[in-house]
Write a structure and sequence with these properties.
seven-stranded mixed sheet, 218 residues, single chain, alpha/beta, Rossmann fold
Length: 218
């Protein structure tokens, strides 16, 4: 009944291309930072940094997730925590890095709390989020999915595999998944990081996602 612009494999491939291009921007900023450098990656994974193939033995990465991760890379460690209330001192990290997390933390108030924590614990930051007004919703990979009524979105997820999510027959769980994502527009995202430079990632002339970065003159 419903068709998607791209299947999961195409969506994942495109996402990887954007991550690599975004990471190239991050590397251009990172090159100006004195070593050693300590990075907090909110919502990050060991596999991500391996995929980016960043070889720098003077770079130390801490992954922050809801649960502590098992890591094997020598210059990497993991901690459990809440992005809205990070239990470390001010300016504990040279850089706070985050990809596609802030849209998952809750309401606009929750997103504001995360933004404030990013700016508090890091001397610099580099934060990405998808654009609410990009026509293809980036998690469910269905056109304009984010603008459909919640009940319809829940029903669709109960009936079909959608993007990164497998079909969820339980209505309560399906609703939790649908409501767990709050996409941001440019005005909202800029307001969360008012001093930041904002970079727009584009495809076919449309803005797919935003990156904000600040503090890089320090």
């Amino acid at each position: 009944m419903f068709s998607k612009i791209a299947d999961n494999r195409d969506g994942m491939s495109l996402a990887t291309q954007f991550r690599r291009k975004r990471f190239a921007l991050f590397q251009s900023l990172l090159a100006k930072v004195e070593r050693p450098v300590h990075i907090l990656d909110i919502g990050g994974t060991e596999d991500y940094w391996r995929m980016m193939s960043l070889d720098d033995d003077q770079m130390f990465i801490t992954l922050l997730n809801l649960q502590q991760e098992n890591v094997t890379t020598s210059n990497m460690n993991s901690m459990a925590g809440d992005a809205r209330d990070i239990q470390v001192l001010d300016q504990s990290f040279d850089i706070v890095f985050s990809n596609s997390v802030i849209e998952h933390v809750g309401t606009i108030d929750d997103q504001s709390k995360m933004a404030n924590e990013v700016r508090r614990v890091g001397k610099r930051y580099f934060v990405q989020t998808p654009n609410r007004y990009f026509p293809l919703e980036p998690h469910f990979l269905f056109p304009l999915f984010q603008f459909l009524p919640v009940k319809l979105r829940v029903w669709m997820l109960q009936k079909f595999d959608l993007g990164w999510f497998k079909r969820e027959t339980d209505a309560v769980k399906a609703r939790e998944i649908v409501e767990s994502i709050r996409l941001l527009n440019k005005k909202e995202f800029s307001a969360l990081f008012p001093e930041a430079t904002i970079y727009e990632e584009k495809i076919f002339g449309l803005t797919k996602s935003f990156v904000v970065y600040g503090g890089w003159n320090n």
